Amino acid sequence: MKVVIIEDEPIGARRLKRLLLQVSPNTEVVATLESVMEAKAWMENIELGNIDLFFSDIQLADGLAFDIFEGSPVPVPIIFTTAYDEYALRAFRYNGIAYLLKPVQESELRQALEKFRRERTLYTAHQMDHLLEWMDQFRQQATPHPTFICYRNDKIIPIACERVACFFIRRGVVFAATPTDEYMLDESLDDIETSLPSALFFRISRQCIVQRQYIVNARAYPGNRLAVTLSISVSDDIVVSRERVPSFKKWLAGQDNGRLSL
């Protein structure tokens, strides 16, 4: 099976590819594309009849994935991946469009692939008319993920929230930890929390917010708390406060948002 992944988060793309090969070892990922522009250019120079299935994130760095397919529907099934709220998911269900809620879980991916093999009609060009009917409404609902201004020496550096594994407070100063470094911010953690998509980020304590896709595991920690291991190295301990442990577990299972009332 030949697959194309459209995903602007490298970690998310690698995770999806790894899960695909686990669930379906004969899968060949033909291309991994990161933007609307790149995807459109790639599709202009490829024979789409040789592709079996697309996996596409909705919110890309330069626009919505719908912009790729609008005006030039492709005769290839598409499974959308999304971190958006129930509004979007209801629209997908209503129109029979396949989706996976991010972060993609192996069991859900397996089910989607089984349905694809059984029906091979998860999403095809004839559904574009239905998609266009609610696309404008979705665009009004979908808000771009925030970018934060960070400081390092005499440099001002824009950091997209997707790159941040966690935000934390150290000695009264807020930092953003990315796979490459830690950056100081001017905003308060409360202000940062309100601007983040709650499907992706969780306020685990008064001192820290974590992003779901960077979480490797969580283990028991003194005081009925949880210690979280991230896929990047962070100099501070990442600990879920005792009162947040139940909500954190629900959030990991996709049953709760990450808002914390202080």
Share of residues in helices: 25-40%
User: What class do helices, strands and sheet pairing give?
Assistant: alpha+beta
Helix-strand string? EHEHEEEHEHEHHEEEEEHEEEEEH
Q: Give the helix tally.
A: 8
Gross morphology is globular
- How far do the termini sit from each other? 49 Å
Poorly predicted tracts of residues: 257-262
Largest beta-sheet characterization? 7 strands, antiparallel
Side-by-side strand order of the widest sheet: 9-8-12-11-10-14-13
Mean pLDDT: 81
Strand content: 25-35%
Features:
5-stranded parallel sheet, disordered C terminus, alpha+beta
Report on this model:
- By secondary structure, the chain is α+β, with helices and mostly antiparallel strands.
- Helices cover 31% and strands 30% of the residues.
- The chain has eight helices and 17 strands.
- The protein is globular and about 55 Å long.
- The chain starts with a strand and ends in a 10-residue tail after the last helix.
- Mean pLDDT is 81; it is low at 257-262.
